[in-house]
């Protein structure tokens, strides 16, 4: 089954790549024109309500990157067509410029990967819209379109690309249809992959991780006529039926931090888990805080009656478990240092903070479990 | 059948399986040893010298990950055992009823035959995954009063529905393989139609289909992993959790080993049972 999928992925990749190269002639930017020329990353819409699809992928993560100091334009981040503060920070080193980068899948082009379906608020855009650089006939993604550069990770991806000197039309995307394929042995079909993958020491033996671009913490989502909504401490959560999606660090948190007395449930993805929550087969669903907020506001919002009503019961403090989310690269990839350099650039010039402000709700009103 | 006529002595003819596995004599042994060594050595050489071998080894055969996740997967495998044992008992009963329903003769029983055919066609054709999803997450969504939303219950129902359709066909092939003269003889001895089925046809039919029944039982064992869809943490799901924590596929190997350890002895046991039964029957024929 896995191999079958692999074949499919490779086929898709090939199709995508050939599609791209015939579509847009690769025009690697001269190294000079990079990070200072701010942005244009997103076709930029206001934070934009996503279609309200199903939910979040089988990965973890979430919110809070120091939303503290925010460069110049906070209004720009939410409204103006071209946000992105204009930076003064030094660009990436000479050998990391697009034209000089070695080890790319496709010389002169950047090949990125994420899961499909791609869920808000991490991804945005409309799969049916043709974005600049997108191959003829669409990207093939479900729910969102990574070519849009919208959503938190979409924006981060294009910001990193830009810092390395790639223009949006030299960025290609390949689909990762299953979480596990990102760490299958052998040649990776991408230069880097981002899908809210938490950095873990054991995982780092199989792939390279970049520095973190997001600190995520977890929360519990529940439906109101349920006593779990009154829980304020981790101790009180022990007797409830908790669930999470497989492959997530949410499940690690259930087992290691909460250690419930009832067997927790693990689902293929958050859609299934959400269904079980609505069926009263679990009392609480553990997801990262931002996804919990998205589920509460967009996915569980359309009940006909006042009850059940979705609430985010509480979130776990960073001292319980914090997930540092990083980009995934091939093990010992020659690109890792350059990608880290690019992340340093967008952190230093405030781009990352602006992206955070634009796409991620802070969740500060949600109480922490004691 | 002709084998019986040919065997003059008490010694039954060896089955094809016994013959093929029997050790070759004399110089044959040497040839077999050498060719076996050459074939496996070549395969091993190609594997170990493949450019990605070390990667593969780390990703699928990592001793440390194996040791770490073994206890968890072992504990979770007990969940699988519980699931497929419960399911198997129910399946054997339900499938037999279905097969009998389908084999009922005469126009009076047409509606029963029709029902059995529709049931079998439907549940053999629909992916088990869908049936389990639909029952486990769908029926509880109806929120019918008094209907359980227990996932283990609905998961078991799903497995029984799907696998009893397969097994019913196995039974039916057994029933069909019994010559009509058997039933005629039984009826002429004064047994009722049901009695003939119960005491003459079914015992012979079931004996014949034991190997394919075992096939389906093994299939069912592996399908018990489908219940993980409903949130149940069984061996496969536990492996998946361990795999994604370590970015390493070794834990799946543990699950595979558990299934193998279970099915291989079971297959040998069935072979032995079938062989013993064969001996017994031919011995009787010979003695007469």
Features:
heterodimer, A: 370 residues, five-stranded mixed beta sheet, 9 helices, 26% helix, globular, B: 288 residues, mainly alpha, MetI-like fold, 13 helices, disordered N terminus
Q: Give the count of helical stretches of chain B.
A: 13
Say how many strands of chain B there are.
0
- Oligomer kind: heterodimer
- Beta-strand residue fraction of chain A: 15-25%
The low-pLDDT segments of chain A are 6-88
Number of helices of chain A: 9
Report the average pLDDT across residues of chain A. Answer: 76
Determine the fraction of residues in helical runs of chain A and give it as a percent range.
25-40%
Sheet with the most strands: spatial strand order of chain A: 2-1-3-10-4
- CATH topology annotation of chain B: MetI-like fold
Coarse shape of chain A: globular
Shape of chain B: flat
- Poorly predicted sequence stretches spanning 5 or more consecutive residues of chain B: 1-8
Largest sheet descriptor of chain A: 5 strands, mixed
The succession of helices and strands of chain B, N to C, reads HHHHHHHHHHHHH
What would you note in describing this structure?
The complex is a heterodimer of chains A (about 375) and B (about 290). Chain A contains nine helices and ten strands. Chain A has about 375 residues and is α/β, with parallel strands linked by helices. Chain A has a five-stranded mixed beta sheet. In chain A, helix 3 (about 150-165) crosses helix 8 and helix 3 (about 150-165) packs antiparallel against helix 9. Residues about 5-90 of chain A have low confidence and may be disordered. Chain B has a single domain, classed as Orthogonal Bundle (MetI-like fold). Helices cover about 80% and strands about 0% of the residues of chain B. Chain B contains 13 helices and no strands. In chain B, helix 5 packs across helix 11 and helix 11 (about 210-225) packs antiparallel against helix 13 (about 250-285). Residues about 1-10 of chain B have low confidence and may be disordered.
């Amino acid at each position: 089954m896995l191999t079958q999928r692999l074949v499919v992925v490779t086929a898709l990749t090939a199709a995508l790549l050939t599609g791209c190269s015939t579509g847009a002639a690769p025009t690697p930017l001269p190294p000079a024109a990079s990070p200072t020329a701010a942005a244009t990353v997103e076709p930029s819409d206001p934070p934009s309500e996503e279609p309200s699809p199903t939910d979040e992928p089988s990965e973890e993560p979430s919110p809070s990157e120091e939303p503290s100091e925010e460069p110049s334009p906070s209004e720009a981040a939410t409204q103006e067509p071209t946000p992105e503060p204009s930076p003064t920070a030094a660009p990436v080193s000479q050998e990391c410029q697009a034209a000089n980068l070695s080890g790319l899948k496709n010389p002169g082009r950047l090949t990125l990967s994420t899961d499909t379906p791609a869920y808000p608020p991490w991804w945005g855009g409309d799969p049916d819209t043709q974005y600049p650089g997108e191959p003829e006939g669409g990207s093939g993604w479900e729910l969102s379109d990574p070519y849009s550069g919208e959503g938190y990770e979409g924006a981060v991806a294009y910001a990193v690309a830009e810092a390395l000197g790639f223009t949006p039309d030299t960025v290609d995307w390949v689909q990762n249809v299953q979480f596990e394929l990102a760490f299958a042995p052998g040649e990776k079909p991408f230069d880097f992959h981002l899908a809210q993958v938490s950095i873990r020491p054991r995982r780092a033996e199989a792939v390279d991780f970049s520095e973190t671009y997001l600190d995520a913490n977890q929360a519990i989502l529940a439906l109101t006529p349920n006593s779990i909504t009154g829980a304020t401490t981790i101790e009180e959560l022990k007797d409830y039926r908790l669930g999470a999606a497989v492959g997530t660090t949410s499940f690690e948190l259930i087992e290691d931090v909460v250690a419930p007395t009832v067997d927790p449930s693990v689902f293929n993805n958050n859609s299934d888990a959400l269904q079980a929550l609505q069926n009263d087969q679990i009392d609480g669903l553990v997801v990262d805080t931002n996804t919990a907020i998205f589920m509460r506001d967009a996915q569980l919002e359309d009940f006909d009656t006042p009850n059940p009503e979705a609430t985010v019961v509480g979130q776990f403090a960073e001292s319980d478990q914090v997930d540092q989310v990083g980009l995934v690269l091939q093990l010992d990839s020659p690109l890792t240092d350059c990608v880290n350099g690019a992340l340093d650039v967008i952190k230093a010039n405030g781009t990352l903070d602006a992206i955070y402000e634009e796409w991620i709700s802070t969740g500060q009103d949600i109480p922490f479990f004691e | 059948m002709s084998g019986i006529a040919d065997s003059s002595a008490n010694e039954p003819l060896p089955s094809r399986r016994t013959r093929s596995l029997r050790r070759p004599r004399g110089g044959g042994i040497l040839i077999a040893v050498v060719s076996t060594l050459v074939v496996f050595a070549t395969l091993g050489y190609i594997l170990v010298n493949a450019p990605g071998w070390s990667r593969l080894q780390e990703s699928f055969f990592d001793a440390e990950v194996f040791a770490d996740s073994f206890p968890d997967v072992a504990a979770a495998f007990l969940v699988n055992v519980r699931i497929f044992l419960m399911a198997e008992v129910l399946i054997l009963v339900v499938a037999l009823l279905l097969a009998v329903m389908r084999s009922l003769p005469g126009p009076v029983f047409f509606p029963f035959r029709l029902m059995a055919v529709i049931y079998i066609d439907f549940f053999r054709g629909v992916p088990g995954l869908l049936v389990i999803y639909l029952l486990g997450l769908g029926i509880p969504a109806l929120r019918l009063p008094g209907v359980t939303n227990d996932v283990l219950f609905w998961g078991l129902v799903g497995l029984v529905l799907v696998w009893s359709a397969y097994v019913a066909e196995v039974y039916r092939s057994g029933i069909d393989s019994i010559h009509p003269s058997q039933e005629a003889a039984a009826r002429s001895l004064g047994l009722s139609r049901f009695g003939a089925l119960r005491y003459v046809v079914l015992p012979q039919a079931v004996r014949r289909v034991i190997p394919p029944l075992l096939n389906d039982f093994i299939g069912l064992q592996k399908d018990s992993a489908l219940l993980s869809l409903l949130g149940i943490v069984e061996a496969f799901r536990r492996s998946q959790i361990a795999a994604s924590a370590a970015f390493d596929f070794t834990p799946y190997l543990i699950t595979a080993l558990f299934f193998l350890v279970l099915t291989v002895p079971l297959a040998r046991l069935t072979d032995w049972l079938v062989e013993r039964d064969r001996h017994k029957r031919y011995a009787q024929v010979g003695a007469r």
